[in-house]
UniProtKB/TrEMBL annotation:
CDD domains given in the database record: PGM3
Function comment: Catalyzes the conversion of GlcNAc-6-P into GlcNAc-1-P during the synthesis of uridine diphosphate/UDP-GlcNAc, which is a biosynthetic precursor of chitin and also supplies the amino sugars for N-linked oligosaccharides of glycoproteins.
Active site: 66
Lineage, highest ranks first: Eukaryota, Fungi, Dikarya, Basidiomycota, Agaricomycotina
EC numbers, comma separated: 5.4.2.3
Gene Ontology molecular function, alphabetical: magnesium ion binding; phosphoacetylglucosamine mutase activity
Cofactors that this protein relies on: Mg(2+)
Coiled coil stretches, renumbered: none
Organism: Mycena chlorophos (Agaric fungus)
Domain Alpha-D-phosphohexomutase C-terminal span(s) in chain numbering: 456-529
Name recorded for this polypeptide: Phosphoacetylglucosamine mutase
């Protein structure tokens, strides 16, 4: 294998650190940035091979650690349709990243190429981007070295959000086809989203200004540019935009802070006016949390479940009004973390499925509907229109003006929503569209249902791999006997529900509990944690 020599000499420059074990998990590789150099090099090689395997289709690589602290970084691969890397390749990524010497790496690589029958003569095309982390440029240089080792055609998309990178991948691979996703540039992305928004929200429906907490991350420059496309039809007030201030990223701000602490980021105190809507992005702008403070200065959070409820009900109405009800099945996908009150609200209106945590599970399940709405409680989600649904939207002949209007709205939503992956900015526009149509403010939206009090705690255990679940993570099958104790305990609390699952991103076990009151939810969570420990 001629090429391996080029790989080998380059790989020597990216040695694997001692005593670190890497794993391509639900969010790709993610850890402290200082140990990631070799991983980035090898991901470059792997991305090129994935492209060759798929006959030269463009593969994406995103360098980000999302909502993690600034000193972390990470990397994930994006498949040609803009979706997450095929699961079967996750294990290959893990194996290659852990080969401890260059020789091991090269021989693993040769085995891999042989086993998957990758034709090395095929072209390789890769587009990559990074978030604003200070460790980004050096890691991107290592990635580029890996791409060069295989002679890949590489395109640098610069500093941008994870969803923009996913958009670019799909746009590049569909360019000039009948499935064209849009122009393959950031401009193309802004054009597509903003023109759909401007069609959906009439000037007389213009919402009041929206405050955006950019988490001091890459959402800031991208939202700044989006704002210029929206003009006075949606004024965005950007906060936490200090992307060059060391230590500021995700620090006491951003979507993950809001969801976990259920508090307004302290930096927004006095900025968000009572009654005004605000939202937080995370460090790579693929998660979104809304909130408002009421006249008594009380903070109210509108999480991914509330977004799902708002959006799904709106789409169901449009489908009915357009006369497409019998042809278009709308459904929702949630995880066990969805608040029980949201599940109840949604189940009364449309089919709801529960799947294990992680975008790939939700995305996959949503594909089984004509229009599939999925959101994790943490604010990551999107809406998928199946190919059949898109076809129907194109060809359907409405028979009344009301049907025609609803149909037009559905067509525009199909453009507005980034369907490759959850996209905080696209989701934000979607929420604004629904609020404008319903003439809702934050509190109207909030009152769709009342969240059940809940508590999430993490427990450090000797070995989290002992914890195995089934039924979409709602039941533990191992350690033996533990589930029945949890079930018995939860039954003693009014409205009690609790489940335990191993984290996919941290070395802990997570305990979730819901009950009729906050103290009860806390008590249930801590008592279940006591059983786990
Ligand atoms: C990852 C997942 C996210 C999930 C979270 C759960 C992707 C792209 N991201 O960040 O969807 O909510 O893990 O983390 O799938 P946990 O397993 O530590 O609870
Ligand atoms: Zn993120």
């Amino acid at each position: 294998w001629v090429k391996t020599s080029a790989v080998g000499s380059r790989a020597d420059k990216h040695p694997v650190p001692a005593n670190v074990r890497f794993q391509y998990g639900t969010a790709g590789f993610r850890t402290i940035a200082s140990v990631l150099d070799s991983v980035l090099f090898r991901v470059g090689v792997l991305a090129a091979l994935r492209s060759k395997k798929l006959d030269g289709k463009t593969i994406g690589v995103m360098v980000t650690a999302s909502h993690n602290p600034e000193q972390d970084n990470g990397v994930k691969l994006v498949d040609p349709r803009g979706e997450m890397l095929d699961t079967s390749w996750e294990a290959h990524a893990t194996t290659l990243s852990n080969a401890s010497t260059t020789d091991d790496f090269v021989s693993e690589l040769a085995k891999f190429v042989e086993k998957l029958q990758i034709d090395l003569a095929k072209p390789a095309r890769v587009v990559y981007a990074r978030d604003t982390r200070p460790s980004g440029p050096a890691l991107v240089a290592s990635l580029e070295d890996g791409l060069r080792a295989l002679g890949a055609e590489a395109r640098n998309a610069g500093v941008t959000t994870t969803p923009v990178l996913h958009y670019l991948v799909r746009a590049i691979n569909t360019l000039g086809t009948k499935d064209s996703y849009g122009e393959d540039s950031e401009e193309g992305y802004f054009q597509k989203l903003s023109s759909a928004y401007l069609k959906l929200v009439a000037p007389r429906q213009t919402p009041p200004p929206l405050l955006i907490d950019c988490a001091n991350g890459v959402g800031a420059p991208i939202a700044t540019r989006l704002a210029t496309y929206l003009g006075d039809r949606l004024s965005l007030v950007l906060e936490n935009t200090a992307i060059d201030t060391p230590g500021a990223l995700n620090n006491a701000c951003g979507a993950d802070f809001v969801k976990t602490s259920q508090k307004l980021p302290p930096s927004l105190a006095g900025r968000l006016q009572p009654g005004q809507r605000g939202c937080s992005l995370d460090g790579d702008a693929d998660r979104l949390m809304y909130f408002y403070i009421d006249q008594r200065n009380q903070f109210h959070m509108l999480d991914g479940d509330k977004i799902a409820a708002l959006v799904a009900a709106f789409i169901v109405d449009l489908v009915k009004t357009s006369g497409l009800e019998s042809q278009m099945k709308v459904g929702v996908v949630q995880t066990a973390y969805a608040n029980g009150a949201s599940t109840k609200y949604l189940t009364e209106r449309l089919p709801v499925k529960c799947v294990p945590t992680g975008v790939k599970h939700l995305h996959h399940a949503a594909e089984s509907y004509n229009i599939g709405v999925y959101f994790e409680a943490n604010g990551h989600g999107t809406v998928l229109f199946s190919p059949a649904a898109q076809e129907t939207l194109q060809t359907y002949e409405p028979s009344t003006p009301a049907q025609a209007t609803a149909l037009e709205h559905l067509r525009n939503l199909n453009q507005l929503i980034n369907q490759t992956v959850g996209d905080a900015l696209s989701d934000m526009l979607l929420v604004e569209v629904v609020l404008a149509h319903k003439a809702y403010d934050g509190s109207d939206w909030d009152s769709l249902y009342v969240d059940l009090p809940n508590r999430l705690v993490k427990v450090v255990v000797a070995d989290r791999n002992q914890f195995k679940t089934e039924d979409a993570e709602r039941q533990l099958v191992s350690p033996p006997g533990l589930q029945s104790k949890i079930t018995d305990l939860a039954r003693r609390f009014e409205g009690g529900r609790s489940f335990v699952r191993p984290s996919g991103t941290e070395d802990v076990v997570r305990v979730y509990a819901e009950a009729g009151s906050k103290p009860q939810a806390d008590e249930l969570a801590f008592r279940v944690a006591g059983l786990v420990y």
